[in-house]
Amino acid sequence: MERSRWLILVIFTCLFVFSEGREFKVKHTHHTPVYNHTLTTILVHYASAVYVSDLTELFSWTCERCDGVTEGFQMIELVVDIQNCLQAFVGVAEDLNSIVIAFRGTQENSIQNWIEDLFWKQLDIDYPGMPDAMVHHGFYHAYHNTSIRPAILNAVKRAQDYYGDINIYVTGHSMGGAMAAFCGLDLIVNCKAQKVQVTTFGQPRIGNAVFATYYSKFLPNTIRVTNGHDIVPHLPPYYYYFPQKTYHHYPTEVWLHNVGLESLIYPVEKVCDSSGEDPTCSRSVSGNSVIDHVNYFGVDLKGSAWRSCRIVMDHGLVDYGRTDAEGNFVVSREPATPVIKLNTLSAAGDNHV
Ligand SMILES: *[C@@H]1O[C@H](CO)[C@@H](O)[C@H](O)[C@H]1NC(C)=O
Ligand SMILES: *[C@@H]1O[C@H](CO)[C@@H](O)[C@H](O)[C@H]1NC(C)=O
């Protein structure tokens, strides 16, 4: 009796050691990125802060969401594309010794309408320079054909001139995740940036399998976080029986979900396989939740109110900004200048524009 229990223990120990060792090896041969929970939960706060509509509080990093793990962030550029209702920023997180770029998700009056639209998005344009890679024009143009891209690239260049070749983290939620992906690719392919890492939350699919393959070659360290039954990562739909025609996610998904054993429920962060469409991750459940879409790691990923696109700021901020002919707005600070304080802005006038 004692002897057989001993044997079972030995077998289990061997199995455990063996499987640990094997997992380690697979990770390295497939270049699965190392998933860093701490870093990801810092970045989700940036993806949340970019939803703040008071530009003065956001630019001076004094908003309610601009605290805790992101304290000390130095904003360099804040851009609001009024025509297309987009918002993004670039700054430097000294704690991370990195540039952080964040894109806001959709700010339409109804997120339900936006989600319904996602069912019908076509793969309708070729990604330049990547044969057979197709993407959806709306996601592509939101980054490439608006006032967002020139403002972002200009700010990254200024940050690099001042801080040197530091890491660049690109993040965003929902539609902002799609824009973060195009931005990361743009930095690598067109701007010859080196240390770029993309982390997105609840992003939709943006291209076909060929695009996903190119994408993961250029940005192998991308983390695409999905949450429970969040509907958006399920869209536009994936048709596995039409492999040439369907949308296809790029790797590496990290699926947040709860595992329950009777009254014991605990959260799991599952690092998924290198296919981009791991059937044992978010695809294993139905995407039927909007609630799961707007909160990741306990952090709100939406505006405090759904509002139409308008600019909210103090007159003081106007001195740092410029507006183009279409009403799009950019606020900038040179990295070498002191961080702008809220009280110096308010002193210049506190009427809302
Ligand atoms: C994870 O990221 C945090 C924050 O950037 C960093 O301090 C930590 O060293 C990282 N951990 C690993 C294992 O790389
Ligand atoms: C880019 O946007 C402008 C308007 O903002 C539009 O007229 C033009 O057709 C767009 N270009 C492409 C290639 O879609």
Automatic annotation (TrEMBL):
Entry's Gene Ontology molecular function annotations: hydrolase activity
Residue stretches making up the Fungal lipase-type domain: 100-238
Ranges annotated as spanning the membrane: none
Signal peptide: 1-21
Coiled-coil regions listed in the entry: none
Pfam families named in the record: Lipase_3
Origin: domain of life: Eukaryota
Classification via InterPro entries: AB_hydrolase_fold, Fungal_lipase-type, Sec_MonoDiacylglyc_Lipase
Keyword set, alphabetical order: Hydrolase, Signal
Entries under SUPFAM superfamilies matching the protein: alpha/beta-Hydrolases
One annotated GO biological process: lipid metabolic process
PANTHER family hit by this protein: ALPHA/BETA-HYDROLASES SUPERFAMILY PROTEIN, FUNGAL LIPASE-LIKE DOMAIN-CONTAINING PROTEIN
Protein's recorded name: Fungal lipase-type domain-containing protein
Species for this entry: Cannabis sativa (Hemp)
